[in-house]
Amino acid sequence: MPITTAAGTKVSIGTTSPMTDATTYEADTWVAIANIQDVGEAGSEAEIVIGKYVDQTYARKLKGSRDNGTMELVVARDSSDAGYAALVAAEQSSAAYNFQVELNDKPATGASPKNSKFYFSAIVASRKNSFKGADDIVNTTFSLAISGAILEVAASAT
Fold first, then answer.
1. pTM (global) more than 0.85
2. Max Cα separation, the chain?
């Protein structure tokens, strides 16, 4: 697929049911989150384990545990939006919730073009309001601490 912008990206929150593959994630009940200003970033990063030995000149480094990070999702504060309300409820819970990030990158042609989708489980670790100035929209930043793998389903023409 060619490069794309984040414009048109959709983020949805699902249930707390454990998922194992794209088919089970797709079947979850999704609530769209409105008024997203910044989706944030997420991705795999390995812990670097360092061994230093007195009989060796150089330190040895190995890959340790992998972590997909914490996505900082910034949305306009709108307590009447079902997605916003679901995020607030998730932040007040200790359970991990399913999330779906759908890009706006489907092919222009094909029998049934589909966008790329990313699925993952995360705890909503924090909810912080940003009030700023008179000409600023009140935002809430939700920290989605990703637990486990991020499953990517590539855009397709069918």
1. yes
2. 64
Token readout for 6 is 């984040």
67 Cβ contact list (under 8 Å, min separation 6) = 44, 45, 46, 47, 146
Q: How many CB atoms lie within 10 A of CB 105?
A: 18
141 close to 91: Cβ distance less than 8 angstroms? no
Mean pLDDT by 10 residues, the chain (158 residues): 88 97 96 97 96 97 97 97 98 98 93 95 98 96 97 94
Query: Token match 């200790």: residue?
Result: 94
Which CATH fold would you assign to the domain 10-153? Answer: Factor Xa Inhibitor (4.10.410)
DSSP-derived 3-state class of residue 126: strand
Per-domain residue ranges of the chain: 10-153
**Cβ–Cβ < 8 Å for 14, 98:** yes
